[in-house]
Amino acid sequence: MTEHSQPEYREVRKKASEFESREAYLNNELKIMSFKRWGVHLPFRDYNIEIEDWVPALAATIGKVVMVTAMVAVFAAQFGLSAEFVAENVRYELLIAGGLFVILFSAILNPNANLAGTHGPMIPLIPLIAAAGGHPLALGIMVCVFGLALAYTKGGSKLMTLTGVGVRGGLLIYLGAVGLIAQINATEAWAASADQGYISFAVIGITLAIYAYLAKINKRWLAIPLCSAIAGIVAYAMGAHFEFSTAPGLPPLSPMYWWGEDTGWQLGLPNLGHFVAVIPFAILAVAMWSPDYMGHRVFQELNYPREAKGVLMDVDDTMMVSSIRQGVGAVLGGGNLASSWGTYMIPAAIAKRPIPGGALLTGILCILAAVLGYPMDLAMWEPVLRVALIVGVFLPLLEAGMQMVHKHKDSLSAGICIFACAFVNPVFGWATTMLLDNMGLIGDAERAKELSLKDKLLIPGAAFVVCVGSLALVGQLPGIPALL
C-alpha cells in the first residue's frame, strides 16, 4: 500500500458541497485516503468523521453488548457463576478491550485493521471446552499465540486469495440465510414466551417494509439505527415488557481480582494441563477466522469504488490486532474470544465509510455504555438486538453472496459450499469447497489450471487437514465422537 505523507489527505480533500450527491462525496473520500500500515493517525488530519460513521458505531455497540453477554453467560453457566458476574465482566470488556483498545488500534495505529469483535461461532463450543478441562485464560492465550503465527506468516490473506468467487458467494449466502432464520425464530420465541406472538409479527413485518424502502431509495446504511429504534418503539407500544436494571458504575479493574481463587472467575491461574486441553479449540478458533475475515473484506470490495485501495481492510493486520486484543483481554480477566467485528464492518461498508472514524465513535460508545449501564439494557432488549442483527448483518450477508454468484460455474461452487456448510458447519464447508475448487473438481476449471501446485493443492490441502482435524478432535463432525 502506498504510504502518503500525513498532511496529504487535508490537501486533496474537498467539501461535500462541491459534489453533486452525497454518494459522490463519500466515494471521493474513500479514493483519496490511504493509511500507513502502522503509525499515528488522527481524526480531521488523516480522516474525517461523518454522520454516516454513527451508523456502524451504533450497530457495533449493540452487537458488542449482545455477543459478549452471550459468550460470557455460557462461560458463567459452565463454572457456576452468577448473573452479576456476567454483567460486570461484560462491562469490563466494553471498557478496556471494546473501548480503549478499539480507539488505540483501529482508529489511531492501524486504520486498515478492522475492529476486534466477538467470535460468535465459538459460543456453542464453550461447554465442550469446559468439559475438556479448559480454562478461559489458557484458551485466550493460546488463541493469541496461534493467531499471531497465522498473521505473521500472512496465511490469512493467502487463504482469502485462494478462495474462489463461487465459494465466497456460497459461504455468504449460507451464513446470511441461516443467521436470518435464527434471528426470526428467536424473535418469535421471545414474543411467544409472553403470550404476545403478535408482537414478533408486527416487529418483523415493519422491519421488512422499512428495509425494502431504504433499499429502494439507496439508504440501506440507515437500516440499523432506524429499524432498531422503530422495532423497540413498536414492541413497547404493543405491551412488551422493558425496564432498565444495570445502574451506572465501573467494574473491578484488577486482573488479580478476575483470576483469583475466590473472586472473579474463581478459577485461579491455569496450569499446564489447562493449556494442553484448549489447544484443539484454539486451533479451531483461528481456523474459523479466514472465512469470517474474507466475508468482511468482500463487503468493502462490493460497496467501495475500485480506486479505494488504500482504505480496504488488511486481513493479516486484522488477525494480528484480534490476536493482540485476545491476549490482552484474557490476561486482564475478560471472557471474550476475539474475531473480526462483523456488526461494525458490514454497516460501515454499506455506508461507504472507512474504518477509523466509526472505530473512534464505537470506542467512545462502548466506554459510555459500560460506565452508564443503562444503554446495555436497551441494546440487549430482544426486539432491538434481533432487528439490528437482521438488517445489519444477515440480510446484507445474504444479498452480498447473491450478488457475487453470476456465472454458472460459480453457482455450482456456491451450491456445493452451501451443502457442505449445512452438512457440518461453515468451517468445513469453506475448507472442503476451497480445496475442490482449486483442484478444478468444481467451479471454474480454467482458473485451477493457472494455479501452481502449492496454490492448487498444498495450501488448500493443509487448510482442509487443520480445519477438519480440529473439528474431529472436539467432536464437531456428525456421528463421530470427539477424538480428544
From TrEMBL:
Keywords, comma-separated and alphabetical: Membrane, Transmembrane, Transmembrane helix
Presence of keyword Nucleus:
no
Question: By its UniProt entry, which InterPro entries does this protein fall under?
Answer: DUF3360 (IPR021794)
Protein name listed in UniProt: Uncharacterized protein DUF3360
According to its UniProt entry, this protein's organism is Reinekea marinisedimentorum
Q: Which residues cross the membrane?
A: 54-80, 92-109, 129-153, 165-184, 196-214, 221-242, 272-290, 328-351, 357-375, 387-406, 412-436, 457-477
Q: Which Pfam families did the record assign?
A: DUF3360 (PF11840)
